[in-house]
Amino acid sequence: MAKDAPAEKMKRKVYEKELQKLQVQLCHLQEWVKANRLRVIILFEGRDAAGKGGTIKALTEKVSPRVFRVVALPAPSDREKSQLFLQRYMQHFPAGGEIVIFDRSWYNRAGVEYVMGFCTPAEHKRFLSLCPQIEQYAIEGGITLIKLWLEVGMEEQERRFNARIDDPLRQWKLSPMDTESYRRWYDYSRARDLMFKATNSRHAPWYIIRSDDKRRARLNCISHILRTIPHGRVRREKVKLPKRSQKGRYNDQTSLRGLKLVAERY
């Protein structure tokens, strides 16, 4: 039986047109979250080069960082290693009127920490056991939790890694940890499947987004988020600029003379 041909990659013009529509809706969602003091967590997981960063950028580039707050934590410090595992994540949980986006999350323990040996098998097993309970506690406390896994294929990941090697603007994205994850593809696959089996709960299910086509993945992701968070339109009074006061008028450009100005090279 012949294998279906891969779908054609989405054209940039079509993508940008659809993205603009979704970003308008995200602005409406933002006002609804603020007005109703909602608390939302969106976490992004997936293999290295799955497209998490670009998806998060498309999601947040037209909204307020005070409402859509991105959290991308570095490796834990010695002090953080002595804390409860989830402690350093929970301090970033949203207050009323906030959407917190985790660019990788507590699920590091089920992925990179487990595969690379940064946690013990007992710690990994304990995490998988307790995680659904902790997430249920957060949800029962009023938090909306959306868990997204970006699934990239083996060949597409290799193509993206090679592109990073050759592009000076993207070489910073390629770390020794990335190349090691490339080598351990099947170890990560097994870790992913263990994670899904233990944490794909009824109250906090995983949603998988195919990301070989980055543009389609971004649109599908944003569309899913908009459907998952019930929202409406918040009526706003139209802003009208007042007349500038002429009281105390003076030439405010003269006062800049003698100061250092940046050379206008463009």
From TrEMBL:
Q: Which GO terms describe its biological process?
A: ATP biosynthetic process
Sorted alphabetically, the keyword list is: ATP synthesis, Kinase, Transferase
- Domain Polyphosphate kinase-2-related spans what residues? 10-233
- Per the record, the domain of life is Bacteria
Reaction catalyzed: [phosphate](n) + ATP = [phosphate](n+1) + ADP
Q: Which InterPro entries match?
A: P-loop_NTPase, Polyphosphate_phosphotransfera, PPK2-related, PPK2_PA0141
The EC number of this protein is 2.7.4.-
Q: Which family does it belong to?
A: Belongs to the polyphosphate kinase 2 (PPK2) family. Class I subfamily.
Subunit structure as annotated in this protein's UniProt entry: Homotetramer.
Q: Which NCBIfam families match?
A: PPK2_P_aer
The protein in question is named ADP/GDP-polyphosphate phosphotransferase
Q: Which organism is it from?
A: Bradyrhizobium macuxiense
